[in-house]
Each structure stands twice: as structure tokens, then as C-alpha cells.
């Protein structure tokens, strides 16, 4: 049937790495990929010795993140810390990870598979431009309000997809470090579902600067992810880290519980400042859903803005402020 002949997302991802090469051995490896792809689709399970760790990209609460290779393909590998693995049968763990494998959305990082404990790893597509945080820290990149809206829309669409699954998937650690970008400037949510797959308790519910006030009381709601989104939107506007300079995270939690928030710049467009305030509202039920956020931002995304729109960012030295498109072309 015609529907069966249409490649799925995984096949599209794999196909970009299977172009013919002059080297016959490379061609042979490429010809074997369809069989391996079928194995991935059906099993979701990868042998640890098939992974090649190239360079370490960073470390988070769950473990180390590496750029790696799987069958000559660029992938991202999250090698998980043993203390975050639940004491559950492998079959149950595999079923939960298989759920992640079934998810398909252009604004969610594509899950490819996992390796068994004790070397438990999550393997996903590799996004070459790295995290949103790294882009915000790059003084060579200018962000105007239109680009900010498009980034925010991409994040909201990915999160709305996760929240509308059955059962719903809550991120519990949404922040600028695990929102990734590829060379085509496609924004994707990463690390979704990891806290659910690895730790279903309240032991870990995100980094404190992005954490909703109700989380400190032991309650995590869908709106808690919306709060984190509001903080990310604030990051897009200011390009700063939330509560930067604060060392004592318990003090930050207490300030948030008392209703205090980072200050929003006066030059922030009202649409964005109003949305930030709604998203990080003290009362969870007064925060919008991700569907509502999409509806709020969509009309603004269609408004044409001149190329000379000022960046909503700290001053950038003259001569170093490349427009985003120019930066990506030179990447």
C-alpha cells in the first residue's frame, strides 16, 4: 500500500547518512543499514559495543552526554548514572523506553534506541548547533522579537505534543540546556520522558532556577512544565541565566515560593512580557496550557518585521553582530 512505502522519521534521519561513497567498503556498510534500521524499529535495543564515543559534550543530572557514532552515523549518547536507574525488571524498563521510541514530532529530538544496564544509554539524533543556552551565550548571534517568537513556538509545539500523549509525558526538566538546535535552525526539545523512565518519584524534578513553586511542596503538574517554559522565554528575552549570581539554591526556591521572579526588561514587547508573567504565575491553574501558548504566539509569528529589528539582548560589540541567517550560512 502507498502508506507503507512512505519513510518514517527514523528512515529520513538515517537516509541523510547513506549517500553513495566511492569507497566500496563504505557502500557495503550503507547497504546494510536498512536491515539494521528494521532491527532498531522492532527491538529498540542496541549493543553497547556498537557505540563509539567521540567526544564528551557535557554532564547533567542524569549523566554524561557524548557525541558518538552508531554504524557510521552521528548520534548523541546520554550515558546514565547508575543511581538514577529504578530497581525494576529490564522488560519494564525496555517497555518504557519503547514508548519514547514511538514518539514522532518535528520539535522533539528523535529517539533511536537504548543499551542495557549496567551500561544504560539513551541514543538520539545529533543536533550540530547544540543547546539553546549555547546559542544565547554566543555574542555573534542576534535575536530579534520575531526569531524569539519562532523559537518559543517550536518549544511550545514540542511540549504540547508530549502533554497530549496518552498517558501524558511531562518533561520535569525543561530548560535552555536541553532545548537543542540543528544546522537548519530547527528547535527541538530533548530529554523528555527521562525522569519518567528513570525516576518516577519526586527525587528529581528539574534544575532549581527553572522549577515551579509547587514542586518544592512535592507536587508536579502539567503546569509545572509551563512555568519552566516561562523561564526559558525570559532567557530568550534577556539572554541571561535565571537567578544568575545566586549560589544558594534553597534561597532561590524560597524566593520563588514567595512569588518573586527575575525582572523582565522594560524594552520587552508586551506580548512576550505578558506571556512570561502568565506562564510563571504563582498559581499553577492560572498558567496557560501549551495549546493556549501556541494560539497566543501564532498570529504574532505571521507579522512581518523588518530585517533591522533591534535584538532583544545585551549590547553586542560592533562588527561582531552577525544576523542569524548569516551565521548559519557560515557554520
TrEMBL record:
Domain Protein kinase stretches: 51-301
One Pfam family named in its UniProt record: PK_Tyr_Ser-Thr
Alphabetized UniProt keyword annotations: ATP-binding, Kinase, Nucleotide-binding, Transferase
Ranges for region Disordered: 1-27
UniProt cross-references to InterPro entries, sorted A to Z: Kinase-like_dom_sf (IPR011009), Prot_kinase_dom (IPR000719), Protein_kinase_ATP_BS (IPR017441), Ser-Thr/Tyr_kinase_cat_dom (IPR001245), Ser/Thr_Kinases-Pseudokinases (IPR051681)
Gene3D superfamilies found in the cross-reference section: Phosphorylase Kinase, domain 1, Transferase(Phosphotransferase) domain 1
Domain of life: Eukaryota
CDD domains associated with the record: STKc_MAP3K-like
Binding residues for ATP: 79
Molecular function in Gene Ontology: ATP binding; protein serine/threonine kinase activity
Membrane-spanning segments: none
Keyword Cell wall biogenesis/degradation: no
Name the record gives this protein: Protein kinase domain-containing protein
Organism: Vannella robusta
Amino acid at each position: 500500500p502507498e502508506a507503507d512505502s512512505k519513510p518514517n522519521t527514523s528512515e529520513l534521519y538515517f537516509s541523510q547518512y547513506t549517500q553513495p561513497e566511492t569507497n566500496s567498503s563504505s557502500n557495503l556498510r550503507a547497504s546494510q543499514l536498512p536491515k539494521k534500521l528494521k532491527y532498531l524499529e522492532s527491538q529498540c535495543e542496541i549493543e553497547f559495543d556498537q557505540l563509539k564515543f567521540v567526544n564528551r559534550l557535557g554532564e547533567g543530572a542524569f549523566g554524561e552526554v557524548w557525541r558518538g557514532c552508531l554504524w557510521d552515523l552521528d548520534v548523541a549518547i546520554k550515558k546514565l548514572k547508575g543511581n538514577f536507574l529504578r530497581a525494576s525488571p529490564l522488560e519494564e524498563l525496555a517497555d518504557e523506553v519503547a514508548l519514547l521510541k514511538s514518539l514522532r514530532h518535528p520539535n522533539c529530538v528523535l529517539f533511536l534506541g537504548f543499551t542495557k544496564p549496567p551500561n544504560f544509554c539513551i541514543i538520539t539524533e545529533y543536533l550540530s548547533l547544540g543547546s539553546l543556552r549555547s546559542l544565547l551565550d554566543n555574542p555573534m548571534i542576534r535575536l530579534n522579537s520575531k526569531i524569539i517568537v519562532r523559537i518559543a513556538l517550536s518549544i511550545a509545539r514540542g511540549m504540547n505534543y508530549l502533554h497530549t500523549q496518552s498517558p501524558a509525558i511531562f518533561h520535569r526538566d525543561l530548560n535552555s540546556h536541553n532545548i537543542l538546535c540543528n544546522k537548519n535552525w530547527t528547535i527541538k526539545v530533548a530529554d523528555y520522558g527521562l525522569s519518567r523512565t528513570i525516576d518516577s518519584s519526586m527525587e528529581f524534578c528539574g534544575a532549581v532556577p527553572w522549577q515551579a513553586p509547587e514542586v518544592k511542596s512535592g507536587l508536579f503538574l502539567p503546569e509545572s512544565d509551563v512555568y519552566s517554559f516561562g523561564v526559558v522565554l525570559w532567557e530568550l528575552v534577556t539572554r541571561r541565566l535565571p537567578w544568575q549570581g545566586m549560589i544558594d539554591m534553597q534561597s532561590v526556591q524560597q524566593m520563588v515560593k514567595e512569588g518573586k521572579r527575575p525582572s523582565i526588561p522594560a524594552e520587552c514587547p508586551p506580548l512576550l512580557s505578558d506571556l512570561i508573567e502568565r506562564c510563571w504565575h504563582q498559581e499553577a491553574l492560572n498558567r496557560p496550557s501549551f495549546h493556549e501558548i501556541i494560539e497566543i504566539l501564532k498570529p504574532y509569528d505571521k507579522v512581518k518585521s523588518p530585517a533591522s529589528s533591534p535584538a532583544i539582548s545585551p549590547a553586542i560589540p560592533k562588527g561582531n553582530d552577525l544576523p542569524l541567517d548569516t551565521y548559519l550560512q557560515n557554520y
